[in-house]
Design brief:
49% of the residues lie in helices and 12% in strands. A hairpin with a 2-residue loop joins strand 4 and strand 5. It is α/β, with parallel strands linked by helices. The protein is elongated and about 105 Å long. The protein has four domains: 3-129, Response regulator (Rossmann fold, 3-Layer(aba) Sandwich), CATH 3.40.50.2300; 158-322, P-loop containing nucleotide triphosphate hydrolases (Rossmann fold, 3-Layer(aba) Sandwich), CATH 3.40.50; 325-399, Helicase, Ruva Protein, domain 3; 404-459, Arc Repressor Mutant, subunit A. The chain has 20 helices and 16 strands.
């Protein structure tokens, strides 16, 4: 703590004391202001914002205790040391009650005064640092609230309106729910909506991604463990089931849970009790189960990735979230939602989306679904200039003509044996995609002349 960063104000009507204390503090590196009256002290207090005030109780134009009240009102974090010849227990108690740091009587020992000054300034420094930390924490929390704010589900399209109706009907119950759909369609968003509308909404929603943990760890994460249950278990860990007590347990990618663990979890759903690893104590399980998978449920069952008995237990209600390409009515409100979200996160005005860029977003096939759209809008908002998102601000794959987008993603899907025409058409599409639609470069890549490429584009009805 540097002394030059902490200004000291002395208010004392005795000139010898004023000069002596001022000289003492200046010798030790403190910036000092001196006042012989309460009115002079208040002016210096307002103009210089001292960190510490040395205050006499007897002043020609006011009492020191009243001055102490003014100081704590004007500068609540400033420390005040009462320095007076009028020593009494009443004055000392009253001074401390009104917020003084310490009370010292004249005559004083210089070493004692310097020690008190140092300690008072250290307290004031810590108070300021705590205030700065609190402000930074509040700012960080606000940024995190924006950054981590999960998108609200959009129910504009007919299939999503049907899902909304189902959620409204079954959310208040404790029925188990299985949510299926491609990666990125918003299965977790639907799970959040179910929890928010349930009777458990005030309790925690605990989420476990079964694909994110190796088989050796997921059991401990789910059921918890006691100290010494296995090598590395240095302390008790309650687990996700305990954390979800009274609330909702969301198991994402349930078909990636090991088969033997699926069996054990099924028992928890049936018996509503479990044991942490290494424990002999049976614990009550009180949660609502919501599971999700991005695999085709019939395929997951056929491949034994999802046990049929667990499936039937979870499948009280099943929600199939359609991919974004099959609910294009939801794209415009999702665009608006994400533009608003990322503009707030970046602290910038919401840009408009140009008609051409908007059409590109509508025409794109969105293989990554809502998550890909969210990432694309974040990318565009960051790059937006002069309050507009144009085509150039969109990710490169979205800028491609629709005919080239499938090729950009790795070629058209094969359906049985492909003819030579199919192979040639796909080769042309992939070359154009790699060259971002530049026909001259694509012709060079294919080893043909540009007029030949134009003829083949016409032959295969490829429009760019």
């Amino acid at each position: 703590m540097k002394t030059e960063n902490h200004r000291v104000l002395i208010i004392d009507d005795e000139r010898p004391v004023l000069m002596t204390v001022e000289a003492l503090l200046k010798r030790h590196g403190y910036p000092v202001d001196a006042a012989a009256t309460a009115s002079q002290g208040l002016k210096l207090l307002k103009s210089n914002s001292p960190s510490l005030v040395l205050l006499d109780l007897q002043l020609p134009d006011g009492h020191g205790l009243e001055m102490l009240d003014r100081i704590k009102t004007e500068l609540p974090k400033a420390q005040v040391i009462i320095l007076t010849a009028h020593d009494s227990l009443h004055n000392a108690i009253e001074s401390i009650k009104r917020g003084a740091y310490h009370f010292i009587s004249k005559p004083y020992a210089p070493e004692e005064l310097l020690s008190l000054v140092e300690k008072a300034l250290e307290k004031q420094f810590l108070l300021r640092e705590a205030e700065k930390l609190r402000e930074k924490t509040e700012q960080l929390e606000k940024r995190l609230e924006i950054a981590e704010a999960r998108p609200a589900p959009i129910f504009k399209s007919k299939p999503m309106q049907e899902i909304e109706e189902l959620i409204g009907a079954m959310a208040p119950s404790d029925a188990n729910v299985l949510i299926a759909g491609e990666s990125g369609v918003g299965k977790e968003v639907i799970a959040n909506a179910i929890h928010a509308r349930s009777r458990r909404a005030e309790e925690p929603m605990v989420k476990l991604n079964c694909a994110a943990f190796p088989e050796t760890m997921i059991e401990g994460e789910l059921f918890g463990y006691v100290k010494g249950a296995f090598t590395g278990a240095m302390h008790d860990f309650p687990g996700m089931i305990a954390a979800a007590d009274g609330g909702t347990l969301f198991l994402d990618e349930i078909s990636d849970m090991p088969a033997d663990l699926q069996t054990r979890f099924l028992r928890v759903l049936q018996e509503r009790e479990y044991r942490p690893l290494g424990s002999t104590q049976t614990m009550k399980a009180n949660f609502r189960a919501i599971a999700a998978t991005n695999r085709s449920i019939p395929e997951a069952l056929a491949e034994n990735r999802l046990r049929s008995d667990l499936y039937y237990r979870l499948n009280t209600f099943q929600i199939e979230v359609p991919p974004l390409r099959k609910r294009r009515e939801d794209i415009p409100p999702l665009i608006a939602q994400f533009v608003r979200q990322f503009s707030q996160q970046l602290g910038k005005a919401e840009p408009d989306v140009s008609p051409d860029a908007f059409q590109k977003l509508l025409d794109y096939s969105w293989p990554g679904n809502v998550r890909e759209l969210q990432n694309a809008i974040e990318y565009a908002v960051v790059l937006a200039r002069e309050g507009v998102i144009g085509v150039k601000e969109l990710p490169a794959e979205i800028q491609l003509p629709p005919a080239l987008q499938q090729a950009e993603l790795g070629g058209l899907p094969r359906k049985g044996v492909q003819t030579l025409d199919d192979l040639e058409r796909n080769a042309i599409l992939q070359a154009l995609a790699e060259c971002r639609g530049n026909k001259k470069k694509a012709a060079e890549l294919l080893g043909i002349q540009r007029p030949t490429l134009y003829n083949k584009l016409k032959r295969y009805a490829i429009e760019l």
